Amino acid sequence: MAYSFRILGKVNPNITVGDIHEKLAGENLQADFHLQRGVADNWEQIILKSQRGTDLVLIEKTEIQPGARGEEQMQAFKDAVYGDKPDNAAAWLINYFDQIKVVYTFEIVSREIGEENYWDVVTELKMLFWDITQGIFQADHEGFSNEDGFLILWHFDEHANGPRHVGTLDENGEWVNYEIELDNPQHRADFLAGRLPDNLERL
After folding, report:
1. pLDDT tens per residue across span 18-57
2. How many CB atoms sit inside 10 A of residue 167's CB?
3. Whole-angstrom Cα distance, residue 148 to residue 155?
4. Residues with Cβ < 8 Å from 95, sequence gap 6 or more?
5. Which neighbouring-strand residues pair with 138?
6. Contact 102, 63 (CB under 8 A)
7. Which of left, alpha, beta for 22 (phi over 0: left; psi -120 to 50: alpha)?
8. CA-based nearest residue to 40, from 13, 20, 64
9. Which pTM does this prediction carry?
10. What is the pLDDT of residues 147-186, one digit of tens each?
């Protein structure tokens, strides 16, 4: 299996392996990380391993600098969302990408991630990086979020179902966050058109 999600951050403070362990310890969680590239105080890649030594999650830090691979990645994001729906959310993202200083990519590489408390570890790290870098999320086959963590672009397939928290820009360019049912045709049509639904209950 291979599934990835990312945190795209507007600020880029150094988050060490020690910081990660300290955060997890505060939540009564433990994890075994192995350095793949870099050093503990300035890492580029680390791997979360299971107690049996299986690679579970590859975490990669990419700094966005002119002429470097990170800049190419941001251009690829711009190209990927161009023409996506809703139009105003895609335009907002393309402008927002210019503020990004760092990208943390989590690549799930084993089904063993569902065992023990490994998903709890991943969730805590996701929230840690999001909080510190003050950015947005992106997930494969789902889309991008706004800074509140609500989905703003539709990358789901036609069989997607269930509730989902989303955000839509209002006439003043402000995000309105609410819940839709992914398999509700009217909800889907309104969201893709950038329309706020009737009887909206803000979140």
Report:
1. 999 999 999 998 888 999 999 988 999 999 998 888 899 9
2. 22
3. 18
4. none
5. 6, 144
6. yes
7. alpha
8. 20
9. 0.91
10. 999 999 988 888 889 999 999 999 999 999 999 999 999 9
CA angle 39, 40, 44 (to 5 degrees): 60
Contact 127, 22 (CB under 8 A): no
Region for 186 from its dihedrals, namely left if φ exceeds 0, alpha if ψ lies in -120 to 50, beta otherwise: alpha
Q: What are phi and psi of 88, to 5 degrees?
A: -70, -30
The answer to whether 158 and 173 are in contact (CB under 8 A) is no
- Residue at token pair 């190209």: 79
Of 202, 197, 2, 31, give the one whose Cα is nearest residue 124. Answer: 31
List Cα–Cα distances, 139 to 62, 64, 107, 126, in angstroms.
16, 19, 10, 12
Token readout for 17 is 């392996």
- Three-class DSSP labels, the chain: CCEEEEEEECCCCCCCHHHHHHHHHHCCCCCEEEEEEEECCEEEEEEEECCCCCEEEEEEEEECCCCCHHHHHHHHHHHHHCCCCCHHHHHHHHHHHHHCCEEEEEEECCHHHHCCCHHHHHHHHHHHHHHHHCCEEEECCCEEECCCCCECCCCCCCCCCCEEEEEEECCCCCEEEEEEECCCHHHHHHHHHCCCCCCCCCC
Q: How far is the C-alpha of 145 from the C-alpha of 165, rounded, in Å?
A: 10
